[in-house]
Design a protein that fits this description.
Length: 163
């Protein structure tokens, strides 16, 4: 292996990070893009594969930790972003919010790794830290929790895909 370069650095300006946390490769466009979860700046940033800043496609997230992509049968791609403050955001290929899964409205349980098992609610996350898709588009979410916890959110067809 050969070290190539570093980019970014600490800061709030575009191209800098406050806890760059998770990475993903977006292949939905003409050229692949590196997507960085800039957790404490509450945004996603895109870079070309040489590390040159491109843009900030999403702001106002709840401390994004990880991103995963899934290509649907029609060729369109969606993304899931695990957010430490108790939710997963689903984005379309234009970075528009399609919805959320696992949303936790209790601020005492958001971004906490010590929530007791007795306080867990099925389908409600506490501190999503990792996310992935399976081949069918189901979403798996790993909660940052001292007891260990993984959620499975089963993909259901939308009105458009039922036709």
């Amino acid at each position: 292996q050969k070290y190539v370069k570093s980019f970014g650095g600490l800061g709030r300006k575009e191209g800098a990070f406050r806890t760059c946390h998770g990475l993903g490769i977006d292949t939905s466009g003409e050229t692949p893009m590196l997507v960085v979860c800039d957790r404490e700046n509450r945004r996603l940033q895109r870079f070309d594969m040489n590390g040159e800043f491109v843009d900030v496609p999403v702001k106002g997230l709840k401390r994004p930790c990880a991103i995963a992509f899934w290509r649907m049968k029609d060729g369109k791609q969606i993304a899931a972003v695990a957010e430490l403050e108790g939710r997963v955001t689903i984005l379309d290929s234009n970075w528009k919010v399609l919805g959320h899964v696992g949303s936790n409205e209790n601020p005492n349980e958001q971004a906490r790794n010590g929530v007791k098992k007795s306080d867990w609610v099925a389908g409600v996350t506490t501190a999503p830290h990792g996310v992935g898709f399976d081949a069918d588009g189901n979403i798996y979410v790993q909660d940052w929790n001292a007891h260990g916890r993984v959620h499975k959110f089963v993909r259901t067809p939308t009105a458009k895909t039922r036709k």
